[in-house]
Amino acid sequence: MSSPAPLLRAERLTLRYPEKTAFEDVSLDVPAGSITAVVGPSGCGKSSLLACFNRLTDLIPGARVTGSVRLAGEELTNGSVDVTALRRRVGMIFQKPVPFPLSIRRNNEFPLREHGLRERAELEAVLERTLRDVGLWDEVKDRLSAPAMSLSGGELQRLSIARALALEPEVLLMDEPCSALDPLSSGVVEDLILSLRTRYTLVVVTHNLAQARRIADRVAVLWVQNGAGRLIEHGTVAEVFESPRDPLTAAYVSGLRG
Q: Which residues are registered as beta bridge partners of 6?
């Protein structure tokens, strides 16, 4: 069987900050309709790699990106890209949920209104659809006017995902989406991630190797070498966990390093 076509493709991608190089010379294909887990020890550039995929690096003073990132064949690193439109196509979920100081309803509506949607019936339809997608509708449908901050940590993370889904992205980037959650809430979010695989392409940064093995189709391993993050191995879950090519990967997945 042939591999799915890459929806995201990084080629010789490097990100430098004024004081250090986050990572360098990373080439990675992210197939459409898959979950790619990005793993590795702290400081190897995992979150920085995600930031390059929807140009959040533009918000970091002094950050300099070289190399190439393509989304469905379109180059993202040049100045002609509409960054607002890009971030609609490539959504980001952060480690700690970031609710707006608004109601549950208004949190979901906020990105839609920012992109010009005002029609009440359509807003209501998107609200219900996305909250159902994340398994939150039955829990909150009778209190949509309550502050979002009244939700639990796991509920807030699912609300953040629903808010991203409201814009109908092609790709979801998730930066350690379960690390701030208790085990029960983490399990709920893991199940949600798996349920989204059929409709979205997901790139998930995680420190939890067991989680990567449970949820991912493919795994990319970053490591710090000569002061910068480098991609030392990538492949299917079976290839990386059961037949790693790099000795560092073998030591990492066996618990001897990292």
A: 31
> Whole-angstrom Cα distance, residue 15 to residue 17?
7
CB-CB contact of 91 with 165 (8 Å): yes
Rounded average pLDDT over 28-46: 95
Paired sense of beta strands 228-236 and 90-93, if any: unpaired
pTM as predicted: 0.92
CA distance 42 to 191: 25
CB 126 within 8 A of CB 166: yes
The DSSP-derived string for 170-208 is SEEEEESTTTTS-HHHHHHHHHHHHHHTTT-EEEEE-S-
Q: How far is CA 228 from CA 1, 24, 48, 204, 249, in A?
A: 35, 7, 12, 21, 17
Between the CA atoms of 130, 136, 141 and 145, what dihedral angle is there, to the nearest 10 degrees?
-80
Residues 47-72 pLDDT 10s:
999 999 999 999 999 999 999 999 99
